[in-house]
Design brief:
Layout lengths: L1 H20 L6 H7 L3 H10 L2 H18 L2 H22 L2 E2 L13 E2 L2 H27 L3 H20 L10 H38 L9 H4 L5 H13 L3 H29 L6 H14 L4 H14 L16
């Protein structure tokens, strides 16, 4: 059993490292594959034990450190591998513990999905703060100074990419470069939340189909309700964003991570509220297609998620289908 777990950890860690390394190609497909980097680690944790998942995360970071610069291995470990392992480990937390004898499966309380989502938001903010910290450490400057220095390095490459005279009048390449650097922390925070939670769902479904998932499959659409503290975290981040320097950048990261979580809650609410519709599959497919091709409409779904949190739009709906056919 030990050698089997070791083999699973090695294979999962190597697969995760390869997916992460593909991001160096810089293509859209490579970026999509790199976003799946936590998936093998989560599969190892959910299908075997969380210790197997942790070993996979460490082996993946070690593999990257042998082939790529050390900062990339650190980024992989902090931003993908260890967060992926942590969320999978939380999904396996039970009261009574898994090792204990429970009188009946129904009497075992599993770690709530809402708190797992809260952890994902915290991880997303931590990833953004770590990125800002590494930028400030590398330049030896304050937050604003580090952003300006990074923008100055980005501007020549951006100018070659855009070409002369293609920007609107009054907009300089330097301004665009600085905006892109300032946008990176909130984008990293929001994308981390979505990436980790989507990967966890996919890993859970795959492990369930294999028959190795130790917990019953939850009604994700019905149970994805963020902790009440998130309603305070979102305006707190927005208020903080109006400050200058490091607090403002962190504020945008907090607001972006929280709002992404509310966007996912909005999607969960849509899954519940459309139950019983004759054309439910078509409606949900259209919703996801619109979000894929017109992503700037996602804030509307986020506001719908906030409304669901405030007014309990899903309350009183009919019970969900059996877990085997659930969303």
């Amino acid at each position: 059993m030990f050698f089997q777990a070791l083999g699973i950890a090695f294979g999962a860690g190597l697969a995760s490292a390869i997916l992460f390394a593909l991001s160096a190609k810089g293509t859209v497909l490579a970026a999509l594959l790199a976003a799946l980097a936590p998936l093998p680690i989560m599969l190892a944790a959910l299908g075997w034990t969380h210790w197997t998942g942790l070993l996979a995360a460490l082996l993946g970071a070690l593999s990257i450190s042998l082939a790529l610069p050390a900062p990339l291995a650190i980024a992989f470990a902090i931003g993908l591998a260890l967060p992926g392992w942590r969320l999978a480990q939380l999904a396996l937390v039970a009261d009574p513990p898994l090792e204990a004898e429970a009188p009946a499966e129904g009497e075992r309380r599993w770690y709530p999905i809402s708190l797992i989502a809260g952890w994902a938001v915290g991880i997303g903010v931590a990833v953004a703060v770590a990125w800002l910290g590494s930028l400030m450490w590398a330049t030896g400057l304050s937050a604003d100074g580090a952003v300006a220095a990074a923008a100055a390095k980005l501007a020549p490459a951006l100018e070659k990419l855009v070409g002369p005279g293609r920007l609107p009048q009054g907009v300089s390449v330097e301004t665009v470069a600085e905006a892109m650097i300032r946008f990176t922390p909130p984008a990293a925070a929001a994308s981390s939340v979505a990436m980790l939670l989507v990967n966890l769902w996919a890993a859970g479904r795959a492990t369930l189909l294999s028959g190795r998932l130790p917990r019953p499959w939850p009604d994700v659409a019905d149970e994805f309700v963020l902790p009440k503290a998130m309603l305070g975290l979102l305006p707190f981040g927005l208020v903080l964003a109006f400050l200058s320097g490091l607090p403002g950048l962190i504020g945008w990261a907090i607001a972006s991570a929280a709002f992404m979580a509310f966007t996912l809650q909005g999607l969960a609410a849509a899954h519940v509220l459309t139950r019983g519709w004759p054309q439910r599959r078509s409606a949900l497919f259209a919703l996801y297609a619109i979000l894929f091709f017109v992503p700037w409409l996602a804030p509307l779904v986020g506001l719908f998620g906030v409304a669901d949190q405030l007014f309990g739009l899903r309350a009183g709906r009919a019970a969900a289908p059996p877990p085997s056919t659930n969303d």
